[in-house]
Amino acid sequence: MMSRVKCRLFFLFAVGFSGVMCHSASAQAKKDTTIILINNITVQLEATQALNDLYDFKFKEAEQQMRWFKQKYVWHPLPYFLLGLSEWWKIMPNTKETKHDDRFLAYMDSAIFVAENLYKKHPEYKIEAAFFLAAAHGFKGRLYADEERKNWRKAAVQGKAALNYLEISRQKEDLSPELLFGDALYNYFSVWVPENYPAMKPLLWFFRKGDKQLGLKQLKEVSYNAFYTRTEAMVWLMRIMNSYENDQQRAFQIAEYLHQTYPNNPYFHRYYARMLYSRGMYPDLEKESLKILTLIDSAKLGYEATSGRYAAFFLGQLYDFKRQDELAKKYYLLSGKFAEEIGATESGYYLYSLIALGEISERQGNKAEAKKYFNLVKSKAGRKNEAFKDAKRRLKKLEKSD
Asked: Count H helices, E strands: the chain?
């Protein structure tokens, strides 16, 4: 059985996390009769408001439009896939929450059923049907590979299905910028994974060679020119630039745009706050973090403990830096409370909140309380974790001073 890390990394490059499709530059020898409904400007206009509402967490409005879309295009996988995407974004703020799983899987299964019928019986729609088959299988596999689901067997089955349809799609030229999205992710991650996890290299011998820089170029093109996959491409570009390419300026620009364009999306809001924190933009960070906590208190849709954990930690850091100890303690404790609520007690935000609380206690002359926090870090963190080592050093220092 493949290890958990290897399975998830395999799934990462194999299905591009969100429905991979590839394109080829080979020319068609005969007249191409392929039809791509998703290129139809009328269809795009009809779907515009639904997509805007979806990403802005106005799910009721988005799904009302999508159900009308389903009545009009009952024969096509697009409306079923969009309804599934709506459920996916209900999961995104906190992937530990599983209450949306069944509806998400049901819509993706419906998209697969309709796309398979289109694929088998209507050759003119074959490439578009393959796009939705790969996308739906890819999304299902991504859910199964999530840390909370850990269903590696099902994830592998879905990944294999997505790859099969990926290969079929490569027989055609680039018929739509939508189809370029998956190729971008494949090109990037098929190189990134073995660079960062050399043990994965043997698993890549049977796959075509990727091109990381081409993948980035393609992802940028999709984020500029695609319609349905534009926002998803921007999300991936933002994450890649921030986490892997060390281009925080570009990541910040995307995060700011997404938050401003979809101000009710809690995932975009907290990512924007993270970028403000990493760039040291403290006045804006304070404002946005306090706003996130207010929205959690008001039970705004999608604002929950995961976002609260980030926002409270950022505020703790801000007030700690200003030596406003009581405010800093308040928010470090709140960050810890949010982390415990979602079972994220091995995360850096939780562990370093505890270390900061220990530092403040030590600064205030309360060595017993400082030891309590440092010992709690040791009990929660693994021995190789830097937080564990830090807490251990601090405890030794306190013991020497007794």
From this structure: 18, 0
Residue 235 tokens read as 């999300």
- 351 residue type, one letter: L
Q: Residue 246, class by beta-carbon neighbours within 10 Å (0-12 exposed, 13-18 middle, 19+ buried)? A: exposed
Distance CA 32, CA 29 (A): 9
pTM, full prediction: 0.88
- Residues 13, 19: Cα–Cα separation, whole Å: 11
- Residues 40, 23: Cα–Cα separation, whole Å: 19
Look-up: residue for tokens 């067997």? 153
Helices (H), 35-151: 41-55, 59-72, 78-91, 101-121, 126-144
- The residues near 276 (Cβ < 8 Å, ≥ 6 apart) are 282, 284, 285, 288
- Identity of the amino acid at 5: V
Residue type, 329: K
Which pLDDT tens digit goes with each residue over 166-177? 767 656 645 678
Q: What is the pLDDT of residues 12-65, one digit of tens each?
A: 444 443 333 333 333 344 445 566 788 889 989 999 999 999 999 999 999 999
- In whole angstroms, give the CA distance from residue 27 to residue 348: 51
Contact 263, 239 (CB under 8 A): no
- Cβ atoms of 319 and 331 within 8 Å: the answer is yes
Mean pLDDT, residues 374-383: 93
Which of 139, 83, 71, 142 lies closest to 110, judged by CA? 83
Confidence at residue 109, expressed as pLDDT on a 0 to 100 scale:
97
Domain architecture of the chain: domains with CATH: 9-23+39-245 (no CATH), 250-395 (1.25.40.10)
Are the C-beta atoms of 269 and 284 separated by less than 8 Å?
no
Which residues are CB-neighbours of 75 under 8 A, at least 6 positions away? 114, 117, 118
- 70 three-state secondary structure: helix
- Report which secondary-structure segment, H or E, holds 191: helix 177-196
Sign of the dihedral through C-alpha 10, 23, 250, 136: negative
Query: Count of CB atoms within 10 A of residue 198's CB?
Result: 9
